[in-house]
Fold these 4 entries.
Entry 1:
Amino acid sequence: MNKEETMVSEVSEVKEDRLYIEAEPIYRPENASRNNKKGSKLKEHDGTSLSTIKGDKENIVTLSHVDIGFKLGTDLRVVVKDFNLAIKRGEIFGLVGESGSGKTTVGRSIMRIIPILDGEIRYNGHLISGNIGSKRAKELKTKIQMIFQDPSASLNDRANVDYIVSEGLRAFHLYKSEEERLEKVENIMKRVGLRPEHLKRYPHEFSGGQRQRIGIARCMVVNPEVVIADEPISALDVSIRAQVLNLIKEFQKENNMTVIFIAHDLSVVKYISDRIGVIYGGRLVELASANRLFEMPLHPYTRSLLSAVPIPDPQVERYKKVVTYDPMQHHYRWDDVPDFYEVEPGHYVRCNHAELKKYKEIISKEKKGGKK
Amino acid sequence: MATYIIGYTLIALVVIFVIFVELVSHKVIFTKSPKIQMIFGHPLLRYSIRRFGSAIISILLAITATFFLIRFKVDANGGESFCSTIVSTWDKLKNQPAIRLDLCNKMKANLGLTDNWFKDLFTYFYNILPFPKTICLSYFDVDTNAMSFSDCRNTIMYLGRAFFVAGSNGEYVTDLLFSKMGISFQVGIIGSLIEVGLGYPMGILMARHKDGVFDRIGNAYIISIDAIPGVAYYYIWMILLCTLIGLPSSYVSNPADPMHFVSILPAALTMGFTGMAGIALWVRRYMLDEFNSDYVKFARAKGLSERRILGVHVLRNAIVPLVRSIPAAILGALLGTFFLEKIYGIPGIGILAYQVETASKLDVYVLQGIIIISALISVVSYLLGDIVTAIIDPRISFSDD
Amino acid sequence: MEEKKKILEVKNLCVGFLSHGKKMNVIRNISLDVYKGETFAIVGESGSGKSVFTKTFTGMLDSNGFISDGTIMYHGQDLAKLKTMKDWMGIRGRKIATIFQDPMTSLNPLLTIGYQIEEVLMVHSKPTKEELDAYKALSDKEKAELSANKPSLEELEEKYYKQEIKYLYEGKANFIQKLLAKRSAKRRAKLTKSGKPHGMLRREATVEAIKLLTKVRIPQPAQRVKDYPFQYSGGMRQRVVIAIALACRPEILICDEPTTALDVTVQSQILELIKELQREYKWTTIFITHDLGVVANVADRIAVMYGGQIVEYGTAEDIFYEPAHPYTWALLSSLPQLGTKEEPLVYIKGNPPAFTSEIIGDAFAIRNEYAMKIDYVMDPPMFKISDTHYAKTWLLDKNAPKVKKPAIIENLRERMKAAAKELQREEAVFNE
């Protein structure tokens, strides 16, 4: 309450014509605070392995107040602003948004491919963002792996499948003898539905779906705890998509992995994920369990995404109205700024107070309707 | 006087222009005039100025480095070995060390060399930095033991004088270099024009009729040029052009002579025919890449004729990566090529550099002058290459934001 | 139902490719009619030959491909017989235009958006030789009559001037711009008045280009014509590509996976745009995609392609509500929209045929869980199911056992209707 008061007094000096003003958010995953910044980072090194769980038992990866941006000349373009997210152990988390929304950037920043500007990312409670030393960074790479979008671009054309798949094993010395390595590689090939004799071939000899399965094999062979799948099926035919999705899901179930599944298509994510976060303009706008998000999408952007999913029925589809989203439609004012609020247990929406009230009404109405 | 007026006016104009551009592009003045912003605040202009500025600094650094290297050579062994090369009577005067040392010092003074390296360096910088100045030098003829001449000149850039290079006796290095460059340029520019004028059509035709007869012949030609060493190739062309066709095989120096131009041709043709292979190779390669691109397929689907697709779409896009090298080719012609000049006896700058390096007497300032000129040329040609590329490729932006 | 006019009649089309001295039959005996004004969708996996098939309509097969048999009749002309570039010039781009999959690479990166549209307008408006000859043959009197029929020079000039100011400068022109517009208006008026057939002038084409960009809903078209493709997002580029197709004013528009590379939200907008423009320009659309979900929106009729053959075709309702071919079943049931969390998603096992060896029997048999012995031996004929609906599977033979469709697509219609109602209800709640 106190906070909001100060906020209002701060903003009131700002020109009236600015409708939309960002404020300090209220939602925070546990175990993170904004004060815990650069100065204290080095203290985080306590020599323990990344596998030992520190503090928070439920969440495996937490991002708190993460800003990510790119330098363009002297200009700094911030793509992801104040991003907060806690990913639970063993879940499949779907991150959905359009191109340019920053969803891939978030995924890559967890992998440490893109450095973050501010905030912190934790893995099992250990800090993994910023300057953490090369040893820890290497250790992290055995824990977090990535599956890429374009199976033809992400595989080295000049290397055979054996080399591609066992690259991770070699890099992290995850085998004792050559026989063990071969056994591991052959096993994983069988698991993804390819034959061991395929190992001698080169990526261009495979179809798109097979290449993506090689990509999955390469990722799973090091037995990671977290897999970031960055639009792994966008470049594939519909008929093959299902195969790849099933494969990822099987691996997840079997090894109790955590998967962050990044996509632009809600229909795909619905099937595979436990929880879904919708990202727009570098901010989470809605976060809920997969079923709940489809039952009760609250944010107008989520609804527009849902309406864009084609329905395989000509008659329904011909009369369907596509909802378009315009960020200006909120009419946020300086005295009622949007934030990430919990509308019902486990269901968060980015909205201001007026919208929050409306959303809560809708949910209570729906519950009454359900009782009838 | 005229040199001073023109020199200072030019310097003032350049300074004012640079300041104006910087102010406009930093949005200090003319913030509300989009036209002036567009012309003088153009990122390309600012980029060129900065690039040129930094290039000048690196050239100065290079000059300093070579200056010291040369001075090491000059002052090695207490300067005796150098003295022995510049004083012709050094050995004869074995018994009079004082006299021969005095002679040597006078000779060094002719060259503008003192014992203080740093003083010399600053004098040199003062001389070469482009602002008007009057340079006077008296030349002491060691052999006749008398002041032979003393003359003054108003100049903007003074590169020193040449004494030992064949035929020069106290000649200004600038004059020497420009006259030599003129000769080299005549050959080089005709050669470059032939290179571009034949290389591009050849590459285009080869790409247009891929795997056709012309493509095969062209490929054979390119491979043969690649396979045979350059010198051998030059001699083959010499035999073809001079012995079989009957072009003159040696240079006619008198520009009034009608044979003067004809005598340049063999060298220029040799250069052109050799260089065109490389150009054709790359034009063909880039053209084929473009032919396979999606926008060409779409252009076909739009119903454009093959000729239009080739001329407007493919050629333009294929040339983008090649255009960068064109200014370098043209300006590089100024510097000549040693082998060609040697084979055809053309007294160009390539030969000059060779003479300086192999002469028994080190002509310090000619060497420095060649270094400065070639550095300037390479800097300017790369800058021009960048600018030309930026003009034809809209995707390249030099702006900071 | 009134008799619809056939615009394209494909009969027994076979296309082969020569690769390493071996001939591969990629299109195997396709017969098909496309009716005027409809949207005809061709659905199949990559490698089914759907792109190759449509490329034969514009003569854009790769250099090692050739039509080995069959006819493609278009307005009484057999497109399969056209060989040289010259023959195709009248058809390609002018009558049949194509939009390709990747808008990122379909546009020339070094030319402005405006130029790429203007180019088409100018090239296509160029008078043909016959037109010019016809004009030359006219007597002076006839020529004078031709120009007398036109409005006066001043009127034309005024009209063109206003048009240029309106479109090129959005109504606000400075002194120099006005001068330029005046000059060009004068030139255009003179040309028009003379009655001589002539191509579009550059500035005229720019005006047209701006109009087209407005049509495909690109904001601030007067400024954006001067932009280069890299300054546009993927969706915007696809809009530009559509604008270029519009500039062609085609009778048939082939859309080769136009939305595959785009986001779902953008995809729905582009589909909407294509549909809308089709209504206005009344062309025929041939829509190629691998995603059955997409075509439900746009298609009137759908053909399902597999292994270089059409295995089933019918109206959109036929294909979605009464699919008869096991391959169509498989395609439908692999849609992720239909998946439920509890069960693994359905997918088609194996790979599409590679054409390297001759296909015996039904090409789909090895991947088909409903395959019968005959499928491995004999290619099934096209069975007629209704007047509009045909399928190429032995399951429709009277001796075949009765097979049930997969449960997942069994009551598709009811489920989808319910889902749609749910969506509508939700929207209603929010719009209260």
Entry 2:
Amino acid sequence: MFRRYALQLKPLTKTFHTSIKLHEEFENPILRTIRILRDDIMLRNRPGRDEHGRLVSRVFPHYVDIVIIGGGAIGSSIAYWLKKKTNFDALRIVVIEKDPTYRKCSTTLSVGGLRQQFSLPENIQMSLYGAEFLRTIKKHFGKEAEVNFTPHGYLVLASEAGAEQLIDNSKLQNELGAMNRILNKDQLKERFPWMNVSDVDVGCLGLEKEGWFDPWSLLGLLRRGASDLGTQYVHGEVVEFLFTEMNDVIMDGVEGCYEGTNNLVVKLPDGQRKNIQFAACILAAGSESGEVAQLARIGTGRGMLSVPLPVEKRKRYVYSFQCQGEPPGINTPMTIDHTGMYFRRDGLGGGFICGMSPEAHEEPSCDNLDVDYKFFDDRIWPILAKRVPAFEAVKASRGWSGYYDYNTYDENGIIGPHPYYQNMYIATGFSGHGIQQAPAVGRAISELILDGRFQTIDLTRLGFDRLIVDKPMYEIGIY
Amino acid sequence: MFKLRLPQICTKFTAQQCRFCTIKEPKELIAKDPKEKDVVEVQEKYDPKKVTKEDMQWRTPWHQKEGQYYSLLRTFYTEDNKRSLLQSLQTPIDLSPSSIKNWWAKHKEQVEILSQSYLPERNQVLGNELAAAHFIVYRGGAVKFFNQDKWIKADENEEYDLPRFYEEGKILEAIDCADMNIVYEGLENLRNLKKVQWLSFNGCERIDDWCIDKISNMFSHSLVYLDLRNCPCITDRGIGALYKLRKLKILYLDDFLRSTTYEMTCLLLEEANPHLEIRSDPVVFET
């Protein structure tokens, strides 16, 4: 009888010694293989990403491929384009931004004007691409992306002295694909009855792709787009570049040994200093580019390095005012006077914003961001009241200030590689029209780095080399 | 390994005697002000065209130097580094249904844009008016010419009666793009029409503010009637740009009471153009 029991128990005990783990649910091996393959395909299990595919790793990046100094519109756009043109893991890109609130960023100052009315073909093409980018912004950043483009046109006025130049510029712009039209005095008066045209000779009215948009939205979208594609933003300030002598590098125009840099020091907000080793560095620090360039010995060295980056901080004001009575109606494009004063409608209830660049001798100091209302009363208001009689009684109700990245050499952007360093690129000095050119500049720099040369718009003439051969690229008759 | 010759100073660089650190005030060169003209007259008038790409290349490329040349292998070297090919090779293959769906939608969109893009040959053979008519009627719209009472529209076999070569005197009066899938790039085909007075985009879902910007420029000289009903992408900012249509008399909109800014824009538009009357379909309130 015991034997019989033993026989019955035998298979029971046997099961306790098999390799089946009782704490796990059994999974069919074929289904399990399919599950793992499916997860691989759906990219769920990639390291360092959350379920939306965004980068979650927030470890400080000590080794990166490309470091971008400055995370404003230009820097974010470069990061976005570099990431867009490569796949997720191909390049490790870090953007160093001093102030993530963007309080001192030039974008705060921008009134978001979109125009193709420049005199340099490069600028016209960059702005045309900017308009194209804004139009197709939903393809880049998803269906919710919106920059509130207001297609109300852009009117540039010229006095008798500047009339000829304005007509020449308009011809060039139309050749390159912009749409604008020269209006004479009577046509201006007929179209814009609110305007006093007594001292205006001609005006150039942008008909398509001109107007204004919300620069903050564009900055936010570019930044979000870049970080969604895997760019890491670091809150900190570049305080030092570390140099190494490279005896094996031979370069034209370099006296003595080439000293390159592959290492920079970032000061974090809590005072820590950390190193970042990079393969390429992009200088897009806006109004502070000049100082950052000095850290990289641009302007303090010998030979090519004795040419400084001529980008300075310049304080500019924007004022908003409310017009009582009969304000210029809906037929008010963004208007630039021949004195350089500009204004545009802000909302529909008679609110306007305006601004103007001061003369060289009255540059305000850049120590703080205080707004000088006297400047409005003394300089802007007389022009404003003369141009638009309805603005006779206006007062600046509010004003804000910000810094332009002003290029003291020729007031145009410097885009391209630095001739001395093999791995340093510059994209700064846009002197007030940076925001609409940001998409094109980002694309251009990404082409330089990834494709080795400009592919779409040839910006060679706007490179740093123009400072070395002393060939300035001025805008003529453009403010 | 690449140490071929001793470091040398660029001869061209020193010969040109480039002026380092000479940052001039821009105003020195440009004659902006008539008062300054007398002073600047001595200097040549500045022209950006005189600055060429070649000026920027102040270093002689290595292979152009004396005693240097490209080896024969250069024949097989290409300047194009095939970045996009590399990118597609590196991108992991994603076969999830949603990504295939996205890819297909994107592909269809590209095909649509390509098929609607402007063809210079079409306009050279047919002239602007007939080319626009062909473009519209082929895609399901209707057109009407001056001195003709009937609308031309494709029948159920997608056949229609339009001249196949340029004919004089055919001038478009009205274009009906109702329920067409017309995109921004397609609007380029409607440029330079002489006297279009009647235009309807009723039910075109792809018409947005950028399209309005284009339309308001292209037809600014002639358009009298414009129908923008059932275009959900149009906002008050786009409607505001219609001030450029100076002859517009009737404008059909969806429901101009949908927001305060929208209504305000409509009122301002009527104020700027006294002949304009903005109409909309009677609003049905759901109970």
Entry 3:
Amino acid sequence: MRESRLKLTAGFTTLLIISVMFIVPFVWLLRSSVMDLSQIFIMPPQWIPKPFHFENFKEAMTVVPFGAFFKNTLIIVAGVLIGTVVSSTIAAFGFSRIKWKGRDMVFAILMSAMMLPGAVTLIPSFLGWKELGFYDTFYPLILPSYFGGGIFNIFLLRQFYMSIPQDFDEAAVVDGATYFQIYWRILLPLSRSAVIVVALFTFLGSWNDFMGPLIYLKSDSRFTLALGLQMFQGSYNAQWDLLMAASTAVVLPCVLVFLIGQRFFLEGITLTGLKG
Amino acid sequence: MEMTAKDVTQAGARAGKKFSKREKKALFYGLLFTAPAVLGFLIFTLGPMIASLYLSLTDYNVFKDTTHFIGLDNYTKLFSGEDDLFYKSLGTTFYFVILRVPAVIIISFFLAILLNMNLKGRSLFRTIIYLPSIVPAVASSMIWLWLMNPDLGLLNTALEWLHLPTSSWLFGEGSVIPSVVLTTLWGIGGTVIIFLAGLSGVPKSYYEAIDVDGGGWYSKLRHITVPMLTPTIFFNTIMTIIGSFQVFSEAYILTQGGPNNKSLFFVFYLWRTAFRDTEMGYASALAWVLFVIIMIFTVFIFKTSKSWVHYEGER
């Protein structure tokens, strides 16, 4: 399609302006994180700190045990990641590569759970975990991912599995392969990119989760980064320099993971077949 | 359609034996592979759902020894106006949804169109627009609290510099909800990417046909882009509505319901009732009200979708 020069220029300019607007909060975050308070309050604002106060990071880490929060977050994220990947690929296999009576109906019922607001299951789930003695542990945050790994992930993987020709399986069946061998030797290797997408979304979802840790964790020593950041804000609400340094430390891993896996992200959203 | 001999024998075999050996095996393994997911659904969705419905009919409170079945009393209390915070939080949330949903859909739609143009640096632009959506809500809320700080924040500094009136943003009774909407617009990237995926499915030849007819960009938008994207608009609208009704992290960190309960978002109010006031029976009733409201919206949009969503290959 030919697009006129004028139109391209107008489009480019608009995008440029909007992109600047999207970047400014990041710049503001970064520059505030390496300034001391007196620099922060200078008017008109400085964009490039002079000098850089990298010790903000060290100070933020000492007033609040962010190292421990980081470790807690990693344990939870790793647990959820393994559970989700194993569990959702197995379920998606059962919902796409094996033809059994009632399959699509069962899948439809599971899909309906996607519409249910989390608030409805929140209170009984909390009471249940508490009853089992798992309040203030990581289990309520990790264990559910081993049971299906979330219907959205199953849906995404199922879409992908269904696009792989059935001939592969049939050939394997002729050779006497079991369903598990087909899953392990054929489907998993073929769907590597889809699995990576699920892993990336899961990483971010778990890393960013706020409500879960807020409800299930009580002791400071078990807090996650998201929760720790919020606690930090409560006690140092005017210390914008330290607050921004702590925020940067929480944001950075996400941004890195995204930039590394970017190619898969965009693929993944197309994968869900939401083109209509 | 004619039945072949093979079909007939197969049908016969099926009638004779309920399941063939192969079908039995498939059923067994199908259930085995999906068992964790089905179990998860029963334990973490259906079970809690029923429990929540029951709780909503009781006066369950963690710190009280006895719990009574009180029928619909919780719901009567909600709707009778005895709890004025209920209507307040409902109003706040509706206002937020009405403001946010059109803003998200319209802005992300046009951003997607821009990002779909054959521009220099297109992939860089895409990255920049998408990036904020992966920032944890806690951190992005922190950044916005700082940007919107009435005295020292960047937004008011910029407004002053431009000699425009400043705002109290999250601290003003009138400006708090639009401000929260603004902060969430930063994370619009996911919706934009879904629109982009939709746009990539529109055949270029359709636009060329308009070129031949001498139509401009407006007729392309009106007669091709919008109609072809109605399924994506439909999907994004439903997802944005469901998400907007349930906003929590932002509510918790940005405002805690303030000022003067002007940003008492529904799920925040629910959380406060359940976990701070420990009125879990009453909070369960709140949860069911939210569920029903979201259901009504979703069903309504599904029903009207027949008249405005066009699927390819239909007709």
Entry 4:
Amino acid sequence: MRYVYLVSIVGVIGLIALLGPRGSVTTRPPIEVFPDMDRMPKYHPQAKSAFFADGRTDRLPVEGTIARGTYYEDEYFATGKNGEAFGKGFPIDVDNDAMARGEDRYNIYCSVCHGAAGDGDSMTKKYGMLTVANLVDQRLVDYTDGQLYDVVKNGKGLMLGYADRLSVEDRWNVVLYVRALQRAANGTKDDLTPAKREELGL
Amino acid sequence: MSNVFPKWSNALPLKIIVFIFILAAAIVSGVTYYATPSYTRVGYQPAQPVLYDHSFHVGELGLDCRYCHSAVEESGHANIPAASTCMSCHSTIKTDSPLLEPVRASFASGEPVPWVRVHETPDYVYFNHSVHVNRGVSCVECHGKVNEMEIVTHDQSLSMGWCLDCHRNPEEHIRPVDQVTNLDWVHPGGKKGQIEDGLKFVEEWKINPPQSCSGCHR
């Protein structure tokens, strides 16, 4: 009996040594102990497909079609252009909500390169993004709203477009916030109310 | 006849019973400890086709989670970014790095980079990212401190009991919505403040996490 215990203990210690504690880092895919119906023959987003020739479950729109809900009758709203020329003005409601949303989106997608203040001073600049535009520069202040919208959507120079990550509405919100940054960076004392000017002694 | 069984065999049945009990206890503890996602899933760190370092891109550069996982607020599925997202910067930076070759190839051909999925719930679980992140459940609650991971590692068990821990006591885990992607955020008031504010959010946002089967299984 003593030997049975000895062999069992050695066995258990061996097993523990082999299995390791919870949370050990491993590249082996997780074992599914009770696999029941964990994996069903159905499709998940961005997963592999055995059916389609390109091996993807995600399908691209059929050529010559667009997805429902992505057609906008208002050409200026969708492209920033009236005919061939870039337009002026905002086709969205300009209010605090739009500005807050624009700030939120700007800080996610734009500030990484253009900087939180829009002046191009950002973390990625330190790592070699040297051609990033200074958004508060007069050159870009002179851009029309539609032109700025077009840059957000389609990119310009080395910048790729953000159409895949920003909805049409959000692109306009971002343009609105960029306008606010430009205003903040290029403000003069004339922008202040007379009371404030007096308060600051200007 | 008296010599057929030696004297020591008298105690044998008892010894065998005791041994069986000990063995059973060992097996039960073993299964409890190992046959659960806390053991089988946590620590999973697959080798990825590109050594994307979250600790650098998020921790050092300060990229928001949504810069790449852009659909997470609208979609049930938190998307893996397209190669064009990587190329937003890498068309300028490290343009000839051999490590980025799969990304460049994908960008040129349109074939996806074969990323290996780390977190995968069973197919009968219908987890929706958007409802969680829009109600103050941070990424860190389920994915751990990805902003400190060089290689993404499975951090939490994602077992059903673990889901229910939060569904039963949501106030311990929800935070202001604007801090959801700030993985280092902790409530400045500590545990007590977290629960106080958590209860407030639960009431204000009418949070009622389902605990019935059909909440997550259909």
